[in-house]
Every structure is written in C-alpha cells, then in structure tokens.
Description:
By secondary structure, the chain is an alpha+beta fold. The protein has helices at about 5-10, 45-60, 60-70, 80-85; strands at about 90-95, 100-105, 110-115, 120-125, 130-135, 135-140, 145-150, 155-160, 170-175, 185, 195-200, 210, 220-225, 235, 245-250, 255, 260-270, 275-280, 290.
Amino acid sequence: MTGEKLFELIGAADDELLERSEWSVQKKKAGFRVKTVIAVAAAVVTVLAVMGVAAAEMGIDPVELIANAFVKRGLSESPEQIGEQINNGEWIYLNGDNVAIIVPESPVKIMLSADGGLTWRESVVENSDGMEAFGDWRDGIAYYGGYIGFFGENGGYLALKAPIAMGREPIRIFLTGDGGDTWREIGDPTDIHQSVPTGAAFSTPEIGFVSYRYGEDPGPDIWRTLDGGGTWEKLAVKLPDGYTDECRFTPLTPSFDGAIGAYPIKVLNTQTGRENMITMRSDDFGLTWRFE
C-alpha cells in the first residue's frame, strides 16, 4: 500500500505532524505516513475502514487479532466495539512504516512492524497478567483498551485500561527504551485521580499525559508527569473565550513530532447536544500549551 493511498483513506490528519517519523527503527522510503493513532485530527476518521484495506497487505487484521485474544480468554468483544475503540485512538499505532498493535492476551503482547506490516516481531509486557485495581491485586485481569506510541530514537509508551467499575477505570503505564522489545512499568495518576481515561501519550521519557472524561468538573481533565511517572499533577488549561457553562470538555490523545505537540479536545454543548473539536498546541514537548 502506498503512502498516498492510505493518506487518502485517512484524510484530515494534521500536516505539520506528518512531516517525519519519530520511531527510529528501520524505515522504507515509501510507505504509509500516519501520525500517532490519528488523534491529532480535528475530525473523527474511520480508521476501521483503513485497517480493513491495510490488513490485506499487512497479513494481519488488527480487529480480528484483538477479538481473537478476547475469545481465547473466554471473553467476548464485538468487532464493532473494537473498531470504535480504534477510531478513538486505542489499540494501534501507525507512523511511517511503523506499526504497533496491542494484543490483550495474558500477559499482554505487542505486535511490531518496521516495514509496513511485511514482517512482524512480538514482545511481551512482563507482569501484565494481573493488575492492582480498586485496592486489590487481580490475577488474569483483562485489559479492555489501551494507548501505544513512540517518541525519540527508541522510546515509547503503553497505557493499559482495566474494565470500568463505579465510574472509574484504572490504568497502568509502561515505557520502553528499546523500540518496544521490553517494557517497564512506571507510576500513574490512579492513586490520586480516579476517572475514565480517554487518551494518553508521552513526548519524552519524562513528560507524559493522561486524559480523562469530564465528570462533575466540566474539564478538560488532563494529568501530567514531568519526571517519568514519579509524580502527577493536573494540567491547568485556560480555555479560549466564547465557551459557556453548558460546555463539557473531553481531552483525547495528544500527539507529538519531536517538540511539536497537538492536544485535541472534544467539546459538548449539553444544551444543544452539538459537538466540535478544539486543539491545543505546544512547541516545547508539552511543557506549555496554547489554543490557536
């Protein structure tokens, strides 16, 4: 599949974040060039249709791969639900010829390709066959979603989500320094903030973000670490003028090309039911943000 063809299918991606690939693993000059999980785009794109086309050439159908992992564990997750999660930026990373797919086995497996899906290797996320959730360690817990991406030379992040219970969804965060071959767990905001994650990403091994669905606070509810998960704090966001008290803000997954970042935020007007997207921009790896 050519880069031009897949770009036509994706559409609406942010051009400034498609300039160059970040993941310095073997790359081909030709290949699809799609930024991290398409979350930078201000419009919702139909990734499922793209993956259906790409699967024939990659030799792997990501939706089928993920669904079969649930079946092996005696669980059922519909292809439609998985496709919706993919559309929302979960399970898959695409950038240049680099592809990563989260496979929710126990322990979790990551499928990695550096040549557009012609060849694959896999890694296992150690200690991902259980999870501390709601005060107890739970063996064999199933992860019902997650975010994956890469930055710098060989850095990357993985955020796994447990099932929702009582309006909360625990999250575990892992980092890699070798292109995804091995993963190590770091601290996450769960102990100090419990809600439903809607996105996650790192721009460097130290700077990372977790987005959450709005609750009593209208949002955007964003938590940031500047020390690789050692500590987390809520990111103060100054919203642009013109938004009323009826608006609710759901941040999604930020995307980075080096220091340049974009943070998409979905806006819901609870009175009219209308939704639109606004985007924050950063030029310093996410240390500071502004609306355009």
